[in-house]
């Protein structure tokens, strides 16, 4: 249904579909491409805190996963947040600044995706810019290498940031 929505929006703006830029649809495509990566399985659904990650909710205060983010995009959750704020935004900043506020829709998605990686680093005792871990670090295996889930988060984070930079440029 996203393609139908994009076509309708392009038509209403009297531009060709190939020229229409929809950052939310682009974010959905980006998340889909990440979810198609084999190493994304650990981030594709909510963590089972009873079997997979005991104590997770004591460490991570805002659980997040890519599958849930994808569902919220498809169900227009992020758009609904924007629509609910739209009237007050028009009153506060005026119609001309509405496009700037609309950018917060894809920024909300970006925030949630970054929360997925941040949660992984937090629970694993790693960090996005932390140097290679020590052997006694919880984020490492017995040989001192980073835990596979942390390596996966770093790789997927780089993929997301590269794609999101393109989305921001086009928006």
Question: How are the secondary structure elements laid out?
Answer:
Blueprint: H1 2-12, H2 23-35, H3 56-59, H4 66-74, H5 77-93, H6 98-124, H7 148-170
Helix pairs in contact: 2-4, 2-7, 5-6, 6-7
Can I get a quick summary?
This protein has 171 residues and is an all-alpha fold. The chain has helices at residues 2-12, 23-35, 56-59, 66-74, 77-93, 98-124, 148-170.
Give keywords.
171 residues, mainly alpha, 7 helices
Alpha carbon gap, first and last residue: 21 Å
Describe the main β-sheet briefly. Answer: none
SSE order in H/E notation? HHHHHHH
* Backbone shape: elongated
Total DSSP helices: 7
List low-pLDDT spans. Answer: 85-90, 92-99, 131-137, 139-143
Structural class: mainly alpha
* Strands, total number: 0
Roughly how many Å is the radius of gyration? 19 Å
Helix-residue proportion: 55-70%
Written account of the structure:
The chain has 171 residues and is mostly helical. It has seven helices and no strands. The longest helix has 27 residues, at 98-124. The protein starts with a helix and ends with a helix. The relative contact order is 0.14. Mean pLDDT is 77; it is low at 85-90, 92-99, 131-137 and 139-143.
